[in-house]
Write a structure and sequence with these properties.
Layout (H helix, E strand, L loop, with lengths): L1 H7 L2 H4 L3 H15 L2 H10 L5 H23 L5 E3 L3 H12 L4 H20 L2 H8 L2 H23 L2 E4 L3 E4 L5 H18 L5 H15 L24 H7 L2 H26 L11 H18 L4 E3 L3 H6 L5 H17 L8 H15 L11 H16 L3 H18 L8 H18 L2
Helix pairs in contact: 3-16, 4-5, 4-6, 5-14, 5-16, 7-12, 7-13, 7-14, 9-13, 9-17, 9-18, 9-19, 10-11, 10-17, 11-17, 18-19, 19-20
Length: about 425
């Protein structure tokens, strides 16, 4: 049985082993476990019961990870997306006055559209159309994005009205805790410890508990409370209200965030073939679409591929076993969710910073001597962290790449779908500019 599983997950081809894959799954989970608490707090502002959303978050994340790991066999974890949950709560429900049950219907419809686009091959065509020159730029941009989140969560950098960002107060105890975590993970990595990320995160969390910097005050919670949101979406009213704009936003952002994450994680893990093609791409996209529809049925906003998956990849994860382990841990979280509240942002932030550093190695794959490659790549890798959006980074890169090819007389080298996507990106910029 063990040999069959190793063949199925291509252990020999990818140089994988069980110990590393399991550790990578744990690393990915503890890096993104914050979603178990952050997602309910955001959706609660939309009037949804927090305990029910907590259970829905765990169930949807577990299903998504298990599908991605067992069917697509990629080390990519899924969970309700940050950004899309805020759009759901503050723009759609509170801003537009749409009941959360109706908004869940829009999430479900976007997931079904995802499935249809995958079935007819549209999403696959979009992935294949991405200029290979931008693959490494997306990976670097997401690395910078991850690092920026880590610096922010640790308190090492903070918002500043005059300079946008500035150095935080390094004497703050919680910031010092994060710096300890950064040094701990770095030291373990230098010494060649494969479980460096996981050990660093857990030791930092433990130090926080011992020093009283981390307080654990679990709220009353029961998995049975999922019934308050399970199957509560109202598709009839969603279609009646004609919420096409909302469905499109869920669809557009999820599609390009997922594509960016897939490209970045796949590039970092070396999972693509020599021509840059993505093996089993249909299964990857189907797992993603099914996770979103399942999330809507459970009672949460759009489920997406998580950039924190890169933490597991840096820890050595190469196969779907990493995602399966992460999914099993989310499954356990359905019953033990309050327990994971003890892992503070200051413990996971150092891991995000170091993952970002590791992903910068892909700058060497970019031809910086060719303006037609360098300029779109630079816009992509800087726009992702500066606009806090993978989709925006892809939009800038696509648009610059297409326009420079045209202006240099090389328009024939551009795929027809790239022209179409560029037009959509430009239309999106104008749409966003209306506000």
């Amino acid at each position: 049985m063990r040999a069959q599983l190793e063949r199925y997950f291509q252990f020999a081809e990818l140089g994988a082993n069980w110990r590393t894959e399991i550790l990578a799954g744990f690393t990915t989970f503890v890096t993104m476990a914050y979603i178990i608490f952050v997602n309910p707090s955001i959706l609660h502002d939309a009037g949804m019961p927090a305990s029910a959303v907590t259970a829905a978050t765990c169930v949807a994340s577990a299903l998504g990870c298990l599908l991605m790991g067992a069917v697509a066999r990629y080390p990519i974890a899924l969970a309700p997306g940050m950004g899309l949950n805020a759009y759901f709560a503050y723009t759609v429900v509170r801003g537009m006055g749409v009941p959360w049950q109706v908004a869940l219907g829009a999430v479900f419809i976007s997931g079904v559209v995802f499935l249809l686009l995958t079935a007819v091959g549209i999403r696959q065509l979009i992935l294949e159309a991405i200029p290979r020159e931008l693959y490494s730029a997306v990976a670097v941009g997401i690395g910078l994005f991850i690092a920026l989140i880590g610096f922010k969560n640790s308190g090492i950098v903070e918002a500043n009205s005059a300079t946008l960002l500035s150095l935080g107060n390094l004497s703050q105890p919680k910031t010092l805790l994060a710096i300890f975590g950064l040094l701990a993970i770095g030291t373990l990595m230098v010494r060649g410890v494969r479980a460096a990320m996981l050990i660093g995160i857990l030791s930092t969390a433990l130090l926080g508990v011992v020093t009283g910097l981390v307080t654990w005050a679990p709220q009353p919670y029961s998995p049975s409370e999922l019934s308050a949101t399970f199957l509560k979406l109202e598709l009839g009213r969603t279609l009646e209200l004609g919420l096409l704009e909302i469905v499109f936003v869920f669809l557009f952002v999820d599609m390009f965030d997922n594509i960016g994450t897939l490209v970045a994680v796949g590039t970092r893990a070396g999972l693509f073939d020599r021509d840059g093609h993505i093996p089993r791409v249909n299964r990857i996209l189907t797992a993603d679409a099914l996770a979103s529809t399942a999330g809507a049925l459970c009672g949460t906003s759009t489920v997406v591929s998580y950039i924190e998956s890169a933490a597991g990849v840096v820890a050595g994860g190469r196969t779907g076993v990493t995602a399966i382990v992460c999914g099993l841990l989310f499954g356990v979280s359905v019953f033990l969710a309050p327990l994971f509240g003890v892992i503070p942002a200051q413990a996971t932030a150092p891991a995000l910073i170091i993952v970002g550093a590791m992903m910068l190695t892909h700058t060497a794959d970019i031809d910086w001597h060719s303006p037609v490659t360098a300029i779109p790549a630079f816009l992509t890798l800087t726009a992702i962290p500066l606009t806090f959006s993978i989709a925006n980074g892809l939009a800038f890169g696509f648009t610059a790449y297409t326009l420079l090819r045209i202006l240099s007389g090389e328009w024939r080298k551009v795929n027809w779908l790239v022209y179409l996507l560029t037009a959509l990106f430009i239309a999106r910029f104008f749409y966003l500019g209306r506000g």
